[in-house]
Structures are given as C-alpha cells and as structure tokens.
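Sanity check

After download, print the first record. It should look like this:
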Amino acid sequence: MILVVFIKGLIIDFVSKFYKRIRLADLRLKNTSCRFSSSSEILESNFGKSVVIFDNNNIYNSKVDSYSYIQMGSRIFNCEIGKFCSIASNVSIAPGIHDLNNVTTHPVLVQKSAPLPKVFGKKDNIVTYKKVFIQNDVWIGEKAIILDGVKIGNGAVVASGAVVIKDVDPYSIVGGVPAKHIKYRFDQETIDLLQKSEWWNFSDEWFEKNADLMLDIDGFKEYLKNDKQNI
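Expected structure tokens:
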C-alpha cells in the first residue's frame, strides 16, 4: 500500500512538472524578448516586452507590462503592473479576501469554489479577491504586501515590509504597517509634468538616444518643456 501511494505520488509529480515545462516553453515562444525562470509558476498571465521574472515566483491572472521585473519569491495574483516597475523579492500582491462579517472567515463553509478537498458552501457567497492596479515606474520594496483592490500611482515607492491597505498617490513614498505617506519624490509641478509626459510610453529609439537624460531630473524637465514635440 505504501509503495502504491509512493508510485502514485511520483507519477503526479512527473505529470505536474511535465505540464509546467510545456507552459513555460509556450510562454517563452510567445514572449521572445522576456526572461522567465523555470522555477517560477506562471498561469493565465500576459507580458509586455523585455520583462524579467526571476526564480520561485507565483504569478496568476496578471499582466506585467514592458521593462518591468519581479525578483525572487514573490506572489502576484490578479494584478496589472505597468511599465518600468521594479518589484523586489518576497512581495505579496492581492493575497485574497476573507469576509470578517460572517460567523467564520474560513472559505470552506461559505464558498463553493474554495480550492479545498471538501467544501460545505452551496454557492459562492463572498468576494475572494479584487484586482490590484500598479501603474508605471513603481518601486515596491522587499517583503511588502499590497492588499486586494489597491491602486498604486505612477512613480510611487513602497518601502520594504510595508502593508498597503489603500490607494497610493503618484510619486508618493509610503512605508509602515499599515503603510502611510512619508513624502513625495518631487514637488507638485514636477509631478504634474512627469505625469503629463507619460515618458514610460516613449519609444525605444528615444531611450537609446536619451538614456542619460533620465539621470538628470532638471535636464529632463527642461527637455519636456522645450522639446516634447520631438518625442
């Protein structure tokens, strides 16, 4: 009996790894400019160009746009991530919702579709997730948690270990548990100019020619004021 269970486990493990390799191969064929670690589990997700997914990530029902990357050990569920975003290691996004107003918070008694061996719920009675929206040029520090339904604005920074429970303004730096606004990266005039420019949508040709300008906020502002028509 023990041998049968052992062999069955080996077969299940082999089949699971086999289908994972097929999914990964298909993903790489569809996204030739991207890099996906073979140790990451990626399901029902879409990617822009030159995206990098490092080791041991779990990504489900999400979109990651161009030039963004996700470091090791992160869990990204039901999320749209914009361009040029930096997601550090061990970040959790949209971990799920448990209703606090029922007799129990456990899904097995209230949710028919709960992913458990046995459920008692006759229908899906609660909302178990809400989509997270992360705009462009966002930096999320290591071990941060972004709760369901949150929107993080362009250029924002989330400090390591922060727990974000509400929307974050563009170019705001937040930290703590729960996360609170610390300061803005720039003054309001600069923020408005960057927002209006939507520089993350500039062409690759522009970045090839003007990459050094991204190191000089004053020079970039001057460029936007004088030469935006040339983009």
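If your output differs, re-run the checksum step. Summary of this record's structure: The helical segments are 2-30, 188-197, 204-210, 217-227.
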